[in-house]
Amino acid sequence: MTRVVRTRAELRDALRDVPRPIGLVPTMGWLHDGHRALMQRARTSDATAVVTIFVNPRQFDVAADFMQYPRNEERDLSICEAEGMDIVFAPDASEVYPPGFDTVVTVGAMARPLEGAARPGHFDGVATVVAILFELVGADHAYFGQKDAQQVMVIRRMALDLAIGTEIIACPTVREPDGLALSSRNVHLSPDERTAASVLHRALVTARSRWEGGERSGDALRATMRDELGREPLASIDYVSVADAETLAELDRVDGPALLSVAVRFGTTRLIDNEALPG
Ligand code: AMP
Fold it and tell me: Which residue's CA is minimally distant from atom 5 of ligand 1?
């Protein structure tokens, strides 16, 4: 049986005397097979598996995006149950952020480019809520999706810098058969936009195969992604990036491990995806 708890006190109570290690899967709900893959990793590796479901207002730079974020707690809880999770923490904002809350975790250079530049304040919101959740759960392991590659890097940096003992484990991106990365936001796509959205992965794979063919120019690889995305009339490019896998600085030449990433809008829906180049 999955135990659903809503307050800090109930969570503390539920965690009393549970076997270790404790694995944590932080989510914003509207759970899909990408989240399930994280839960399965936790279930296999940890004696106690905890999922958090919290649409974190602090990581949305646009209020409308927060309001429109899809929610279906009943369905989410049945998925957690089916995946054999021990505890679900589904708090209200007032439980996560106590009255008078006035502390923010800010990660530096790693959080500035890409999503950080496109969504001001986003990673402050992410780092802050994740630090709180790590502390509340006392997790030994926490599972994150490689789909949000920069998020994984920001959280690793934060955990290292703040001496948080939780080990961060990145899990591969789960995709639809046409390559589209699963995302809670996909539900907002119209049928035509949904078909068009496979272009993100196509652009990344095309650039990756040019890199495999020996192309090392950052500009050429960025142009490859722009060209591929440009072929899809419903896609509006937010950014394309070929960045150093350690620092996320844009690269002139790809001489080591790198990260290809794209952010693309279809109407009001903004999707991201990435592909690692091992170097
Ligand atoms: P979210 O609910 O969108 O905040 O995502 C919660 C966690 O699930 C994050 O660590 C995401 O990176 C991860 N995630 C989201 N989509 C996928 C996916 N398609 N494959 C693997 N992990 C994912």
Answer: 27
